Amino acid sequence: MLDIVRKALLAGLGAQERAKEFVDELVKKGELSQSDAAKLMNEVMSKAEKSGEEIDKKIGEIVEKTLVKLNLTGKRDIEKLERTIQELSNRVKTMEESR
Predict the structure, then answer these.
(1) Which of 10, 13, 37, 82 has the largest count of CB atoms under 10 Å?
(2) Angle of helix 2-28 relative to helix 34-70, nearest 10 degrees?
(3) Of 19, 17, 38, 37, residue with least CA distance to 27
(4) What separation, in Å, do the N-terminal and C-terminal C-alpha atoms of the chain show?
(5) How many Cβ atoms are within 10 Å of 24's Cβ, its own excluded?
(6) Whole-angstrom Cα distance, residue 81 to residue 15?
């Protein structure tokens, strides 16, 4: 799965680079002004960022579902256990000190 994600990200970066080259070419030909080019690239970058966030979210959901199916503990479970252990340790320490 990591390979698929890596390929998707690299494809996205390649697409952004091609978009920039395309816009630069339009500016050179005089078909697009510098300010319009900047606006267009900002729009492309914004959409790419949103797409990246959506991909991150989807990947997170897939990983979470996979962990559930595999019955593996996740980071949240481990953090919850760590908090519980810390609370119990504090209680034991308090009880020992009160003796």
Answers:
(1) 37
(2) 170
(3) 37
(4) 55
(5) 13
(6) 43
Instruction: Give me 52's structure tokens.
Output: 């990246």
Map tokens 């481990």 to a residue.
78
Share of the chain above pLDDT 70, in %: 87
* Report field, pTM of the whole predicted structure over 0.70: no
pLDDT of residue 10: 62
pLDDT in tens, 52-70: 788 888 888 888 888 788 8
Residues 6 or more apart whose CB falls under 8 angstroms from that of 28 comprise: none
DSSP string, the chain: -HHHHHHHHHHHHHHHHHHHHHHHHHHHTTSS-HHHHHHHHHHHHHHHHHHHHHHHHHHHHHHHHHHHHHT---HHHHHHHHHHHHHHHHHHHHHHHH-
pLDDT value at residue 22 = 83
